Amino acid sequence: MKEQFIEAVDKAIEHVVFDFQRDPSRHMNERDIHWNLFNCLKQQGVFQQNYVAELVHAEFPTRAEYKEGESRSARGHYDLVVLEPGSLDAPAVREMSLWAPWRKYLPLVGVVVAVEAKLWWYRRKDFQQIVGWDIRKLTDLQNAVGCPYFLNFVHLNFSRPQMKKYFLELREYLMAQNKQWPDLKILCVPSDADIQPQSDNWISTPK
User: Would the CA dihedral through 14, 19, 22, 23 be positive or negative?
Assistant: First the structure.
């Protein structure tokens, strides 16, 4: 079942990439990317079967809580997840109250896939910090994510040399992260399909 879910996620991502490069202006903000992916995923046959509960969720919380500076610790959230149906069908979960706290519910529910998706539409100088936070949520062993995805959609005016340079800097940084986290699936796709071959959209560590 896990393999079927991952295959469905890959197909949905492929569709979003096609939409993005065909008409980048359709995605005016990051949320548009999220909902396009959510909609494509829900149309996959494997998620149209009858399960004990809904498997695909947006803004699903992490098991781990994080503290920054003097602020109170809080959970992060994934842009999208696919939950493990067997864990949702366990008696301890099925009998749990809808108002049960996350600290009781989350350790019992398996996350087969977690997705973080970014839309880069200007040259953010703090991209390393932004990337680091998303990767931390996806790779933290406390969160026990089965298959993590980090998707980067880059919508820039690539006719300007500084924009292409920024894209290459971002991609190089993501490649370095992939070397550290080889099990993390990282996508870096430009709005202009001529900037790089389609086969290079997925960043992978050479074997």
Answer: negative
How is the chain classified by DSSP, letter by letter?
Answer: -HHHHHHHHHHHHHHHHHHHHH-GGG--SHHHHHHHHHHHHHTSGGGSS--SS--EEEEEEEEEEE--TTSPPEEEEEEEEEE-HHHHTSHHHHTS-TT--HHHHGGGS-EEEEEEEEEE-S--TTHHHHHHHHHHHHH-GGG-EEEEEEEEEE---TTSHHHHHHHHHHHHHHHHHHHH-TTSEEEEEESSTTSS-GGGSEE----
Alpha-carbon gap, residue 141 to 50, rounded angstroms: 30
Place of tokens 């980048």: 24
Tokens describing residue 45: 């046959």
Compute the half-sphere exposure of residue 194: CA atoms within 13 Å on the CB side of its CA. Answer: 3
Over 90: is that where the pLDDT of 134 sits?
yes
* 27-86 per-position pLDDT tens digit: 999 999 999 999 999 999 999 888 988 999 999 999 999 987 777 889 999 999 999 999
pTM: 0.95
